[in-house]
Amino acid sequence: MTKRIVVDPITRIEGHLRIEVIVDENNVIKDAFSSSTLWRGLETIVRNRDPRDAGFLMQRICGVCTFSHYKAGIVAVEKALGITPPLNAILTRTLMNIALFLHDHAVHFYTLHGLDWCDITSALTANEKKASELAFKYTKNPIYTGEDELKAVKERVSNFVKQGSLGPFANAYWGHKTYRFTPEQNLIVLSHYLRLLEVQRVIAQMMAIFGAKNPHPQSLTVGGVTCIMDITDPSRLGEWLTKYKEVADFVNRAYWADIIMAAEAYKGEDSVLKGCGLTNFLSFQEIQVGPDEWLLSSGIVKNGDLSKVYEVDTDKITEDATHSWYKDNGPLHPYDGETNPNYTGFVDGVSIGIDGKEVKTPLINENGKYSWIKSPRYDGEPMEVGPLASVVVGYAKKNPYITAVVDEFLAKTGLTPAHLFSTLGRTAARAIECKVIADYGIKAFNALVENLKTDKNTCAPYSIDKEKSYKGYFIGNVPRGMLSHWVRIENGVIKNYQAVVPSTWNAGPIDQNGKKGPYEMSLIGTKIQDLTQPLEIIRHIHSFDPCIACAVHVMDTKGNKLSEYKVQPSASGLR
Ligand code: NFE
Ligand code: MG
User: Fold this and answer.
1) Which member of 176, 225, 391, 458 has the lowest number of beta carbons within 10 Å of its beta carbon?
2) Cα(350)–Cα(358) distance, rounded to whole angstroms?
3) Is the torsion defined by CA of 362, 368, 372, 375 positive or negative?
4) Which stretches of 447-514 are assigned E, i.e. beta strand?
5) Does the structural domain 3-564 have CATH classification 1.10.645.10?
6) Which residues of the sequence carry a binding annotation for Mg(2+) (predicted)?
7) pTM here?
8) Ligand sitting nearest the alpha carbon of 500
């Protein structure tokens, strides 16, 4: 007999995500459904606006990857108008992008995903001296793991416990059988977790040096950048460099070391090494470090076959809304995409409650529409995007930066390339991408300094002809994967705008052909140890770093009521 488990909301992500799974008599997941339960949006808000404002408005899609949608909105309009920004502008944008990637990846591993790997309560039983010595096993020069530092960390968290509360660490599945770190390993990660909170501030400052503020920087403009006083001021450049080095140091001596340690500790945990289910990967070049050089590569790997990489053809991108709460079903190419809501709600059903007993619960109607997220497809096929895709594509293409770091990871952990197609691989891939940027992002800085010696251009001139129609797009990679923005301009204003976002690719529901996307596929086949504590579900889903604000990003322009629905956070079947 099958049972249904509902996890809603998935916490420690951005936005509102619900996961439902159906397990068999052995608690193995046989089917899975991913649903975004909140709708918002920006694609309609930019219609009839001045195209020069698209980037400023589109960056409000999200409070996390704000720079991504800002740059995408600016570049899509530049492409439409036929503008090539000067190299100084391109490289300055890269310096800001480097800050974004370093921020999102490090924050994801520690603040959002770390507690799926690290059992805080176990850390409190660790021997600090042993832990301090152990840290040298994973890096030659560990950081924040001195015996005294670890003692202070233990004391700090123990004080929470003494007050009868774990504070920010309350309500997790502590003691779960699938946690694999020793108490000492847990203490090392806990120390880095707390230190990351300070490093996060430094990275935000990195963004603000050229972006004026963070989040939602302000210095990109159609044609180039406006921060000319900052990029031509050696002290501002020096400030960026100092912060970059500090963060790169944390990435190498803490994050990277912890990932190597996690791979060693979790090698025997089947639930994290279980295959992805879907092994199609799609990625696009990003982090431009010179006139014609990028750190991340474009391409497609199909069915996990690393021997062949296909080129990306943007005509083959579509969005399907068959099971999404929109009027159309699609699939439509984003130039012709539509954004008209059609909320159909949930159906009555039964799930397993937090006490392990059956309870009446509103359930996803998998035969109808069940998510605010659409289902992007490439040539009709679902694709995983994100750091795992960028690492798989880069490795298959023999990108020298990716290859160097992947080879180091495999050599240090004894894992094989096939192991990358897993939840552990996805989590490691984010660290691999982060290390590539921490180790080689300096190339963009050096190229900018060099170029500024002979070229002070920061913005390309252009004009908009109101009699003409234009269309253009941005395509590139952002921290959670491949992002594209598509704009049509008529009569000098935006006629249609569509964003096809990384978390949409990964979290979307079933398409018209019944094909599932990466979230749903990654869950199928997982055995859940304890139905009342589905840590395995959360770990798989967190490994994608969901951002549901990005994934949905649609709303009415005038604040009109579009549909009405009730959220039932206290229903006993929900977690
Ligand atoms: Ni809201 Fe985003 C990134 C974009 S996620 S965080 O990275 O675009 O899909
Ligand atoms: Mg969209």
Assistant:
1) 176
2) 6
3) positive
4) 470-478, 481-490, 493-500
5) yes
6) 43, 62, 553
7) 0.95
8) 2
Q: How far apart are CA 485 and CA 233, in angstroms?
A: 33
Element (H, E) at 504: helix 502-507
Q: Which residue has the tokens 């912060």?
A: 243
Listed by start position, the domains of the chain span 3-564
Q: Among all residues, which ones are annotated catalytic?
A: 14, 62, 65, 69, 480, 503, 547, 550
- Give the integer Cα–Cα distance in Å for 359 and 406: 46
Q: Any idea which residue has 């956070």 for tokens? A: 569
Closest to 388 in 3D by CA, of 421, 418, 413, 416:
421
> Which ligand gives the minimal distance to the CA of 483?
1
The one-letter code for the residue type at 500 is V
Distance 216 CA to ligand 1 centre (A): 13
Amino acid at 467: E
> Hey, is 512 helix, strand or coil?
coil
Q: Are 434 and 107 in contact (CB under 8 A)?
A: no
Nearest atom in ligand 1 to the alpha carbon of residue 504 is: 9
Tell me, using a 6 A CB cutoff, whether residue 14 lines ligand 1.
yes
Cα separation, 223 vs 176, whole angstroms: 53
Give the integer Cα–Cα distance in Å for 16 and 424: 24
Structure tokens at 98: 């480097």
For residue 541, report the distance from its CA to the centre of ligand 2, in Å. 21
At residue 27, the 3 state secondary structure works out as: coil
pLDDT in tens, the chain (575 residues): 899 999 999 988 888 899 999 999 999 999 999 998 876 567 888 999 999 999 999 999 988 988 999 999 999 999 999 999 999 999 999 999 999 999 999 999 999 999 999 999 999 999 999 999 999 999 999 999 999 999 999 999 998 888 877 777 887 899 999 999 999 999 999 999 999 999 999 999 999 999 999 999 999 999 999 999 999 999 999 999 999 999 999 999 999 999 999 999 999 999 999 989 999 999 999 999 999 999 999 999 999 999 999 999 999 999 999 999 999 888 999 999 988 889 999 999 999 988 899 999 999 999 999 999 999 999 999 999 999 999 999 999 999 999 999 999 999 999 999 999 999 999 999 999 999 999 999 999 999 999 999 999 999 999 999 999 999 999 999 999 999 999 999 999 999 999 999 999 999 999 999 999 999 999 999 999 999 999 999 999 999 999 988 887 654 434 444 444 444 443 334 44
